[in-house]
Predict the structure.
Amino acid sequence: MTGSEANSDADLLVRVSLRRPDRAPTPDGSARDDRSQDPRALRSRAAIVQAATALFLERGYVDTSVDDIAARAAVSKRTVYNNFADKERLFTEIVLGVTATAEQFANEIIAPLRHADDLSTALRELARQHMAAVTRLPVVRLRRLISAESARFPDLAREYHRRAPGHVLTAIAAAFADLAGQGRLRIGDAERAAQHFAFLIVGATLDRVMFEGEGAIPSGPELDRLADSGVEAFLAAYRPDEHP
């Protein structure tokens, strides 16, 4: 990955709040700066997050140092520590920060299913959006990074899964339960049906990309075709014999 590609990823992934962190000693024992949250401080924090995100995606966690982050962000090392307790805290905030994307996906894309006039069309649209989201380069790179660091940060990996892919599955399950209540889907276990839907749509493609890398991401038209065929398989199993 080139530096410019990593910076582009950072622009897309940065979701960390720019609120002022709690005061705590820096690693050298000195007190944190008690400056107010002026625009310069906010810009510095944003630059640190962007630089760290790019470097983590480019080099990995271990091979990225606080010195590297400070240099890329064009700030002092002390400024990094004034905003984040250490590299681990910075990495954690970046990973958890991006879950806002999953929450937005669930709220804006999945919720309309409950009132869709044409369920088949709505499911195809959801499937295409889901496939496009999980195969975006920044998302693929972040997933691979979290997977690579899961032994070092097991709790963080579990929390990312709960807030991101797990959150999406929960939202899909809730929508499917509503549709089953309307008689538009034949579902006994909404959670299991959501799992079937997600893996019919993205399972094989995402597995291949995670193991083979970015070159395995299909073209846009092929992603749509895979999504549509997954919906066909899902409806064959879950559509009532007589449906609205």
